[in-house]
Design goal:
The chain is mostly beta strands. The protein is built from no helices and twelve strands. It has a twelve-stranded antiparallel barrel.
Length: 188
């Protein structure tokens, strides 16, 4: 059974320090598949000034709901955020430190995360980058992340006003097979 929940701005697992604008909301959704199974998820976010509230829920290919996840992101500085997350279903928490920097006059971005999960009792990390092939329209993204195993991924984001569409593929040294995901982000 495959459970998925996004960690960062779709399609990346590596998070960014950006917050949903105050008084605005965001909905993310996606489907991830491997040769063995597939799963989907929805994540709702609300902007409250320097805070962002997130709630996410994954679904298996059999239609079973996965663990509910609740998070609060605090924008400490424009390039630094701290996140506290809790899953009442798993009775587990996560703590994240997130950094993000614009490069090349806004044409590129670099992201770095450090995360501790009480469920696995381990720390993990993520490093990602993005480059706008066409500013404000098409971005190429890539990342590496891991805990005990290492995973690599790459994908594209296509921007339309308040809608972002994405496609992404990753490979994990543990699973030894590619995963594919497609999804959307909608702001209002």
């Amino acid at each position: 059974m495959l459970w998925i929940l996004a960690v960062g701005a779709r399609p990346l697992w590596t998070d960014d320090p950006g917050l949903v604008d105050e008084g605005k909301m965001e909905l993310e959704g996606g489907v991830e598949a491997s040769s063995e199974d597939w799963g989907s998820y929805l994540q709702w976010k609300a902007g409250l000034g320097r805070l962002e509230l997130d709630m996410g829920l994954g679904f298996s290919s059999e239609g079973e709901a996965g663990p509910l996840e609740l998070e609060t992101k605090w924008g400490v500085l424009p390039w630094l955020a701290v996140v506290g997350g809790w899953s009442p279903t798993l009775e587990a928490y996560e703590a994240k430190l997130i950094g993000g920097w614009e490069l090349l006059d806004g044409k590129a971005e670099l992201l770095a995360n450090g995360v501790y999960s009480s469920e696995t009792r381990r720390a993990y990390w993520g490093v990602a980058g993005g480059y706008f092939l066409k500013p404000e329209l098409l971005e190429l993204v890539a990342e590496a992340y891991g805990e005990e195993e290492l995973a690599f991924g790459a994908g594209l984001r296509l921007f339309f006003s308040s809608l972002v569409l994405d496609a992404y593929s990753s490979y994990s040294t543990e699973a030894k097979e590619p995963f594919y995901t497609v999804g959307f982000t909608f702001d209002w």
